[in-house]
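Handoff note, outgoing to incoming analyst
You'll be picking up this chain. Sequence as last confirmed:
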Amino acid sequence: MLAFITFDPVYWLLVGPFMLLALWASFRVKSTFHRFSEVGVRTGLTGAEAAWRVAQAGGATDVTIERHEGFLSDHYDPRTKTLRLSPDVYDGRSVASIAVAAHEAGHAIQHAKAYTWLGFRSKMVPVTMFGSSAWIWIFIGGQIFANPMLVDLGILLFSATVLFQLVTLPVEFDASNRAKAVLASSGIVTTQEEALGVSKVLGAAAMTYVAGALTAIMTLLYLIMQRRDD
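Most recent structure output, in case you need it:
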């Protein structure tokens, strides 16, 4: 059995602080979104309208925008070139809605411009989906049956998940930068206060990816330490 499941203090010493950081980041993004969902934009645009304008201005002219259920479930699907926005974002006329919608449109622009890191991340998805769910069982099996090959395979699969999270960082930061640039140049965001709000919403969201990546890195370090102790 994995030692950290039995509350190994070394695991909590290495990973615990970053898990707390991830929890704080999750709380912060929700609270920041709620805060700026109460702040309207002078243009009166909905998130869906802003996303369409940002995508068009950035060269992603063949994007479809759909309403998608769930709180902050917003994402861009490169397979169908579809922006799926949560109801609060799709229908919202706030700084928070504009920020999130424009960020997702930023991914559509990346796709249209053949942004390298987005393409690399998309190619990693099948391996990552398998590895993220299978690695722990393979690792546990390797420890139970004292099979170093299975342990190493589990670590290798988890390493692919860590790599995916690291690749995600430049993709997310770049999408936000593209979104902010178009929002400013197109006049969707018209005041300094609105621009600051957009930056705060997107900055809070970015921190969740940073915290997740750091947690994954430290977990990988712990697994490698476990392997070397066997």
